[in-house]
Design a protein that fits this description.
The structure holds 2 protein chains of 2 kinds. By secondary structure, chain A is an all-alpha fold. Chain A has helices at residues 10-35, 38-41, 55-61, 66-69, 84-91, 102-110, 130-134, 140-144, 161-169, 190-199, 208-211; one strand at residues 116-117. In chain A, 43% of the residues lie in helices and 1% in strands. The longest helix of chain A is centred in the N-terminal third of the chain and has 26 residues, at 10-35. The relative contact order of chain A is 0.12. Classes of the chains: A mainly alpha, B alpha/beta.
Chain lengths: 213, 1131
């Protein structure tokens, strides 16, 4: 049986293989490093919206409670974006001729819709539920950041599974009494957090099916 | 051991079989010596008939006596020993593996994969595509985005209404269930109202989103608009005086009213009604017996003896859901009958006489397989034994089997007067129904176990001719050129009218024919006008449940394709003026306000039901019914009805003679009468007994098949007179001797992309004379093979990790899977317990130290502190109706794979129903066993997943995480119950096509739609559990302000299968609550684990099937053959 020899042209492959072997760790490190940057995690993702609605003005300066507009947050999984009719409650009289409010007025008049861009976008296989979190008194701020200071809303937290689990394993730092639910910049004292933890018997599950179904 | 090795080293135990290149069995008939047969020789034909059925035959029971030692079998081939177990394909535990069927070579695959990896890198610059949130401009009151709401509605099939609840998610209906608020549609068990719904009513929601539904008006084969049709209206009204209306059967009070108005306005108009599967015989039978038509309705929950004559009371009967629930109530141990003076548990006893093994026959304690045409002589014999009428002059009376059956049954009925009922089926002639009415009178049934209901005054049902007669006379007139204008409301007579009526030819002679239909079906294409019909979830409507109660349907969504309902079309035809004349101008004005033009569907329905106030109407629509509309009780007594002379074949016995066979027509589980042919859910739901999907076939009994020399999985020609049809043959155990059942609903040509060309059109053989039972049929084999897509041997849990996976090993395992007992045994032996099965691995150490004997576990066992979800499935009340399968499909976005992939074992149902036979094939006992994921506490699947995609939750659920799964399929390999399903292909691909996008509206948003390459399985409806827990917390907070916990009372979380089950055979709940229903069932002595020797500790337990045979009928293997054997480790 003739002895097998690699054909000559494979010689040229060798240096490329070397490059590949040397390059692979560099590539992997770079990939991982990029993967954990805020850019990749979309922290700070701040898409433009059809109406330059300012949370800083409404929630911050005017002090409107979050639940005035996001009224379903306590009884549904989704904290619904308010219908144009809610805007018109005030803007029927306040700034009723403002140009920037035109899409709202149009939607209201024609029963149309305003297409807002989703900021906090979880993968489709994740089932996050506002009702579950708000009713055990996790403050809005814990996930959404200082909304009262955002002129245009951006994503404040990474919303990764690791980040979710961090709180599910130790929820206490993010609890507050129900009266302070929507308060911004509020740091609950340790006693308050502990009381809520015990009163509400907060034992967030860390099972897969808690969020993935 | 791979299949290949087996072939090389294993000893072939049977003569080699022939395979085609895909491993399919094409011809297999190994020679067997007669003494090898596991049951006594019973070769039919004239000669053997004498031996087996002669009055002096040794013992009727002997045909049952010698069953295989293991007691159970699943296919005729298995019983014969020729099962595919021995074939290359069958011995492979995973025939679904891609190497079996994927044409793609390994090299191709790697090439493709590297290309897609490269592309994946390009596409990953941003994590997700931009998503928009589009809120309504004005949110309706009480509308909460992201939550579901339920609305009452009504479904109608074949003239019987069903009260339903539709679940709607943000304006799109996503699920249908029975309405548990409706009195007829639900019953109370354990303090809770439960409804249940059959497969057709649940799957009807798929029709709503069917992209093949008619999307526009057609005139003279060209597209038109509804305005064109409106323009025709004045001319049409001019012709209505001589026009005809052909309607499908409907119980709608509004249509009845519109019909009356139409006939009053146009006295020359004639209204015909046709339905291919009709219960006319029952109505005409009561007319014979009582002088006027009344409707019999049995009360099965108080019956101790139930007799059905050629009648399926569990699925086919219009009151099937009611009957199923009531039957289960009196069947359940500790059910509605548990009042025996001796303190013994009492359950009902079901006797069934029928030609084709039905759901009812499969549940029966005693079943007599008898040709449908022998229903008359049987009823006469039974009547005579009870002192009603004269005995029949038929040979079947002398057959030992029949003799014994009639004698013991008559004795039991006489002893159970006032606690028994006899029900006859739709195929039986009116005379049998009349005779049954007399028998029921003789056993004191009326008023106790049976009600006669009076049709409402002026009901068309009172005087209507039969459906066959109606279509015959109409077609005669059409062919004679006497019909200028024909309006067809629904139905599909071109396809399903009797063949000798020649409806298509007659329709061609009609000047203007207008067909209102959901699909552009065969009739639409032959008519001059086609109008798209609104789905019942798109329009206002109403119907009557079988007891006469009016149920209301409200639109949940605007018509997707601009369809009209029958009510709207009739209202349009009449026009406002005619309606004003009938109703009174002031009434109409009050209804419509200042609206001009035609009345809307709602106004017409409302005008019919005349609610006293607006609030009352809102209440009725909310509840889905109008109270106090049930038919009143009829005070009737049957007179003597002369029986017709017996035909020659009725006078002979159970002989098998080619040319003198009978043919009966059977509804199909996948298309009903053909109307659901385009419904992929139903197409893929296996028939409860044959387990065949995507096909129809001829059912031939095993003895008949042998006598006629036809085989399973081959094509045969069935001939009656000059008409013949060639289709697949299925040899079904239990099919009566000399009877062939043809399944209807196949061979559609204009059903849509799903249903076109599925199966064979068997209506071609159905004539007006042989509408129910056709005689003088002959059968011949064509010699061609034909493989039906049967899931019969898929997911065989008898193979697997048990030692010695060979035929013997399989047979040994069988009785451990299905446990049976009798009520007598339960009563006589208070210590009886379903066998626990052999333990393979005991903890020796513990035994040495004298500690309690316990299993040696391979797993680190976990303790559960919170909820412990569990399920119990009662095999005693499971009728095998498949409702759970469709419910699961709907709830969990389970994909449909199609006929070809079903043949590759790739069907995706999360819950399957295993079916086992026991006893001789001529007269088998049937057990259904629904098998969802067993949610093992020591789950073998979890141990082998390399990526932790399937792990245990602390509530004991075996969680499946799709986004982690990389598709190794190790878990499925290691699952002893074979409940895991793999997405071999992207089953949802087609829903991304533009024209199919509408179908995506049906997806349940609470469940991930799985992609290719991931494993999936039953989750115990974890989405319902999670949502229930979250809502309970929110509710607790709103009540107590501050203290929040999640108290979940028993029954808060209900799985989809449980909700759909009409007999409540499936119970789900929290095992940590000792008072929950499921915990009590788990503690029941009938409960047992599947494959307990593996010590997987399943969270699902089965409850042994309890049979209740009459001790006077010598039964063969009535008892669980295994109970002792399994423990003692026989062999």
């Amino acid at each position: 049986m003739p002895r097998f020899t690699f054909p000559e042209w494979t010689e040229t492959l060798k240096k490329w293989i070397n490059l590949l072997v040397l390059g692979a760790p560099v590539y992997l490190v770079a990939l991982v490093a990029y993967g954990v940057t805020p850019q990749a995690l979309r922290v700070g993702y701040q898409p433009p919206q059809p109406v330059p609605y300012s949370h800083a003005l409404h929630a911050g300066e005017l002090g409107i409670d979050c639940r005035y507009c996001h009224s379903t947050v306590e009884r549904a999984g989704e904290a619904a974006i308010p219908p144009a009719a809610v805007c018109m409650n005030c803007h029927g009289t306040v700034k009723k001729d403002s140009d920037v409010l035109l899409p709202i007025r149009e939607a209201y008049a024609e029963n149309g819709a305003v297409a807002w861009t989703r900021v906090h976008d979880l993968p489709d296989y994740v089932y996050f539920n506002h009702e579950a979190h708000v009713n055990v008194a996790v403050g809005c701020e814990s996930c959404h950041g200082r909304i009262d200071q955002m002129v245009t809303v951006y994503q404040a937290q990474p919303l990764t599974m690791e980040w979710c689990l961090e709180c599910h394993r130790n929820p206490e730092p993010n609890l507050r009494s129900i009266e302070n639910l929507t308060k911004m910049g509020y740091a609950a004292p340790a006693a308050e957090r502990k009381k809520v933890l015990e009163d509400n018997r907060v034992r967030p599950p860390t099972n897969c099916s808690t969020c993935h179904r | 051991m791979s299949a290949k090795e087996h072939d090389e080293h294993g000893e072939p135990q049977h003569s080699p079989l022939e395979h085609d290149d895909r491993g399919q069995l094409i011809t297999a008939r190994p020679q067997r010596s007669e003494d090898e047969r596991p049951w006594p020789e019973e070769v039919p034909g004239e000669d053997n008939y004498a031996a087996a059925y002669a009055p002096d035959a040794p013992d009727a029971g002997s045909t049952r006596a010698a069953t295989p030692e293991h007691g159970f079998w699943r296919t005729m081939a298995e019983l014969d020993g020729t099962a595919k177990l021995q074939t290359e394909r069958g011995n492979n535990e995973f025939p679904a593996a891609p190497e079996v069927s994927d044409p793609m070579s390994r090299r191709n695959f790697f090439q493709l994969m590297s290309a897609s990896m490269a592309l994946a890198g390009v596409g990953a610059c941003r994590r997700y595509e931009k998503e928009e949130i589009v809120p309504l401009a004005r949110r309706p009151e009480d509308q909460v985005p992201g939550t579901t709401r339920q609305y009452a509605t009504a479904f109608e099939l074949g003239g019987a209404g069903h009260a339903m609840l539709a679940t709607s998610y943000e304006g799109r209906p996503i699920k249908l269930d029975g309405n548990s608020d409706h009195e007829f549609a639900s019953s109370v068990t354990n303090g809770r109202r439960h409804a249940g719904a059959h497969t057709f009513s649940q799957a009807a929601i798929l029709n709503l989103y069917d992209p093949d539904r008619s999307q526009g008006v057609i005139n003279a084969k060209k597209g038109a608009s509804i305005e064109d049709f409106r323009a025709l209206l004045p001319a049409l009204r001019g012709k209505l005086g001589a026009a005809r209306v052909l309607s499908e059967a409907t119980s709608s009070p509004t249509i009845a009213a519109l019909r009356a108005w139409l006939l009053a306005t146009y006295p020359g108009l004639a209204w015909h009604e046709y339905e291919p599967l009709s219960w006319d015989n029952e109505r005409l039978g009561t007319k014979l017996a009582f002088g006027r038509a009344v409707r019999p309705l049995a009360k099965l929950d108080v019956c101790e003896t139930i007799v059905t004559i050629d009648c399926d009371i569990f699925v086919e009967h219009p009151a099937a859901m009611r009957y199923s629930r009531d039957f289960a109530a009196s069947r359940r141990v500790n059910g509605s009958l548990n009042f025996d003076a001796s303190g013994h548990g009492k359950i009902n006893r079901l006797w069934s006489v029928e030609s084709t093994l039905s759901h009812t026959g499969a549940m029966a304690d005693h079943r007599l397989g008898l040709r449908s045409e022998h229903g008359l002589p049987f009823a006469m014999a039974l009547g005579a034994a009870l002192g009603v009428g004269a005995p029949p002059n038929s040979e079947i009376r002398n057959e030992k089997k029949v003799q014994q059956f009639v004698a013991v049954l008559a004795e039991e009925l006489a002893a159970n007067k006032g606690r028994a009922v006899v029900i006859a089926g739709r195929r039986q002639p009116p005379e049998v129904h009349a005779l049954v009415a007399q028998i029921n009178q003789a056993i004191d049934a009326p008023g106790k176990t049976l009600e006669y209901l009076e049709y409402n005054e002026g009901s068309p049902e009172l005087e209507r001719v039969s459906h066959v007669a109606a279509i015959q006379s109409l077609a005669r007139d059409m062919a004679g050129g006497k019909v200028g204008t024909l309006i067809i409301l629904g139905g599909n007579p071109v396809y399903d009218a009797p063949a000798d009526v020649e409806f298509a030819a007659a329709l061609a002679k009609v000047g203007t024919s207008i067909h209102l239909s959901e699909h552009q079906n065969e009739t639409s294409q032959a008519a001059t006008w086609h109008l798209p019909r609104a789905h019942f979830l798109e329009a206002w409507g109403d119907a009557r449940t079988w007891d006469g109660a009016a149920v209301l349907a409200q639109p949940l969504i605007a018509p997707l394709y601009g369809g009209l309902s029958s009510i709207e079309l009739l209202g349009m035809l009449l026009g406002r003026e005619a309606i004003e004349r009938q109703l009174g101008k002031d009434v109409v004005a009050r209804l419509v306000g200042d609206q001009a033009g035609e009345l809307t569907g709602e106004q017409l329905v409302r005008a019919t039901h005349k609610p006293p106030t607006d609030a009352a109407w809102r209440r009725n629509v909310h509840d889905g019914y109008v109270p106090n509309t049930r038919f009143g009780a009829a005070a009737v007594a049957p007179g003597n009805v002369p029986m017709p002379p017996l035909t020659p074949t009725q006078a002979t016995g159970s002989t098998i003679a080619n040319g003198k066979l009978e043919v009966v027509f059977h509804y199909s589980s996948f298309a009903y009468d053909g109307r659901y042919a385009n419904n992929a859910w139903l197409q893929e739901t296996p028939d409860f007994l044959s387990k065949v999907t995507w096909d129809n076939y001829a059912i031939v009994g095993p003895e008949t098949a042998e006598a006629l020399n036809v085989r399973n999985d081959s094509r045969i020609t069935v001939k009656i007179g000059t008409r013949d049809v060639t289709l697949a043959c299925y040899t079904m155990p239990g099919q009566a001797r000399g009877s062939i059942a043809l399944v209807l609903g196949g061979g559609r040509k204009a059903a849509g992309r799903v249903g076109n060309g599925v199966g064979v059109d068997t209506y071609r053989l159905r004539t007006a004379a042989g509408f129910d039972i056709a005689q003088a049929a002959s059968v011949s084999a064509t010699g061609e093979g034909y493989t039906l897509a049967s899931v019969q041997e898929h997911w065989d849990i008898r193979t697997g990790i048990i030692p010695g996976v060979n035929t013997e090993g399989l047979q040994k395992r069988l009785p451990e899977l299905v446990h049976m007992t009798t009520n007598q045994e339960l009563n006589e032996d208070p210590t009886w317990k379903a066998a626990e099965g052999p333990a393979l691995y005991w903890d020796d150490q513990n035994v040495d130290t004298g500690g309690p004997k316990r299993h040696l576990s391979l797993f680190r066992e976990k303790e559960y502190k919170g909820h412990r979800w569990g399920m119990a499935i009662d095999l005693s009340t499971c009728t095998g109706c498949n409702a759970c399968m469709v419910a699961c499909q709907s709830e969990n976005n389970v994909p449909v794979v199609g006929r070809k992939e079903v043949m590759n074992n790739r069907e995706m149902h999360w819950i399957r129903i295993d079916r086992y036979f026991s006893g001789p094939p001529s007269d088998p006992i049937v057990v259904h066993q629904p098998v969802p994921c067993q949610q093992c506490e020591n789950a073998p699947c979890e141990q082998v997943c390399p990526v932790g995609a399937t792990v245990h939750s602390d509530e004991g659920l075996n969680d499946m995480t799709y986004n982690r799964c990389i598709g190794t399929r190790y878990c499925a390999n290691n699952c002893p119950y074979k409940v895991r399903r793999f997405n071999f292909l992207d089953w949802n691909k087609e829903w991304r096509e533009a024209r199919n996008k509408v179908r995506r509206l049906l997806f349940n948003p609470e469940v991930t739609v799985r992609m290719r390459g991931v494993m999936e399985k039953c989750t115990f409806c974890v989405q319902r559990i999670q949502n229930a827990k979250i809502h309970a917390r929110a509710q607790a907070r709103s009540q107590h302000q501050g203290t929040v916990d999640e108290p979940l009372p028993d029954g808060t979380v209900r799985t989809a299968c449980q909700e759909a089950c009409p007999t409540e055979a499936i119970v789900f709940g929290d095992l940590s609550d000792p008072n929950s229903q499921v915990a009590r069932l788990h503690a029941d002595r009938r409960s047992y684990d599947l494959l307990p020797e593996l010590y997987t500790r399943p969270r699902n337990k089965f409850l042994a099937r309890v049979r209740n045979p009459n001790p006077k009928m010598e039964q063969g293997p009535a008892k669980q053959p295994s109970a002792g054997a399994a423990q003692g480790g026989h062999r």
